[in-house]
Backbone:
């Protein structure tokens, strides 16, 4: 299948023309955006879908307020981890019964890493990448600490993988898209290499789910984790999801054996018997009000063609990279489309105040220590013209030196 391609615009007029014929333009009405804001942080916290407030209100007022405990059956509450997982599945190339919604990314990774180590009893090393999102590394440290001889080895770069893939390695955990640089890894090729070495592969999809087409099945992936509040717009701190390949579902044992992973939670037995299938990876019931946000946003995602999202995303990131280069900036995101996710990172020693000054102009990006300005591109609610204008604003902030103002140099708790 040939990927849809979009010609990268080279003027504001061309951006306006592209917006006028953009096949995804109608999706913008599905989101409630602050007036005048150009939101380039959907990779961190996705914007509010227009249908979410009503779904949350109905869940609170009707399901909780009126139907109370009967809602578990009446509104299918007990099924949500499964039914919502099945609705996420097509976005990551999984089948029904292969994805469940539960817990946070960190907790899900804890469960899957432990399960993976148990599946490879003679091997006790977990390989990760030093610059990965720290929680993934902290969890690897925590899990390996529970196994005798367990160790977590951090590669300086994924390029060093082969040198470390010996027969002590039980499992490799990597992010498909790097949270800082936006670098995209070749999921099929790396998974195959890890399998050839006799190890298992866990992918973290936090910065790729909803940003590009993913095919866990075709890539023969063992396990994956992802979050729903970034590109998927489920709302602040909405629960994560996890994927387990069918071949592991009946044999893998996860350690957080809570009642929702039991074969019959409502039999209230005193011993644990795992559910069959993906259900055994549940621990507790996920927060129901947060699931209302996920229910609403997945109604939008059901209508989305991820190939079109990818084509627009690549054109937007390329446009922004070109504009940044024209400003003489140091872009650290890979230029090759097949190595790029949906965000652009720019290195600048004063990145923090520059981003603050941009936010005051209505262009909302973020900053990642020590020196990266990070801009996420979400094709369902951004236009090419906004991308052009954002780069223009960046140029003006830098040229005017307005970022030097004291108010831009005071750091909040979250950058
Ligand atoms: C956002 C993100 C997380 C979030 O972890 P939580 O435990 O859900 O808070 C984890 N890993 C990566 C790579 C992320 O980008």
Residues:
């Amino acid at each position: 299948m040939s990927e849809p391609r979009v010609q990268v615009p080279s003027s504001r007029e061309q951006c306006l023309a592209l917006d006028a014929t953009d096949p995804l333009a109608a999706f913008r009405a599905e989101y409630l955006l602050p007036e005048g804001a150009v939101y380039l942080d959907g990779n961190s916290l996705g914007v509010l879908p227009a249908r979410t407030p009503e779904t949350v209100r109905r869940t609170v007022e009707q399901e909780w307020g009126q139907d109370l405990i009967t809602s578990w059956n009446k509104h299918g509450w007990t099924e949500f981890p499964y039914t919502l997982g099945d609705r996420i599945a097509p976005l990551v190339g999984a089948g029904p019964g292969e994805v469940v919604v539960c817990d946070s990314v960190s907790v899900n990774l804890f469960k899957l890493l432990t399960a993976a180590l148990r599946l490879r009893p003679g091997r006790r090393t977990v390989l990760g990448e030093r610059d990965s999102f720290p929680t993934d590394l902290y969890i690897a440290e925590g899990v390996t600490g529970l196994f005798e001889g367990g160790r977590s080895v951090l590669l300086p770069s994924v390029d060093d993988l082969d040198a470390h893939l010996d027969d002590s390695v039980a499992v490799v955990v990597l992010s498909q898209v790097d949270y800082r640089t936006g670098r995209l890894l070749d999921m099929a090729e790396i998974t195959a290499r890890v399998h050839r070495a006799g190890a298992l592969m866990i992918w973290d999809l936090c910065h790729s789910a909803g940003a590009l087409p993913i095919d866990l099945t075709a890539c023969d992936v063992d396990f994956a984790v992802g979050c729903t509040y970034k590109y998927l717009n489920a709302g602040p701190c909405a629960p994560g999801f996890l994927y387990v390949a069918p071949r592991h579902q009946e044999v893998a044992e996860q350690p957080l054996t809570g009642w929702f992973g039991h074969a019959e939670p409502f039999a209230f037995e005193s011993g644990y018997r795992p559910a069959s299938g993906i259900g055994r990876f549940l621990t507790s019931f996920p927060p129901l009000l947060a699931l209302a946000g996920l229910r609403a946003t997945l109604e939008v995602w059901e209508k989305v063609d991820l190939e079109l999202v990818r084509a627009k995303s690549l054109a937007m990131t390329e446009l922004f990279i070109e504009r940044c280069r024209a400003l003489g900036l140091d872009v650290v995101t890979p230029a090759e489309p097949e190595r790029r996710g949906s965000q652009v990172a720019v290195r600048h020693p004063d990145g923090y105040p520059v981003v603050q000054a941009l936010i005051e102009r209505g262009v909302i990006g973020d900053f990642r220590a020590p020196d990266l300005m990070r801009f996420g591109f979400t094709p369902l609610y951004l236009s090419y013209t906004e991308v052009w204008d954002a780069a223009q604003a960046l140029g003006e902030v830098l040229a005017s030196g307005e970022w030097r103002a004291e108010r831009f140099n005071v750091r909040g708790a979250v950058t």
The longest strand covers residues 169-175. Residues 104-106, 133, 135-136, 175, 179, 204, 206-207, 227, 240 surround pyridoxal-5'-phosphate (CB under 6 Å). The domain at 76-301 is CATH 3.40.640.10 (Aspartate Aminotransferase; domain 2).
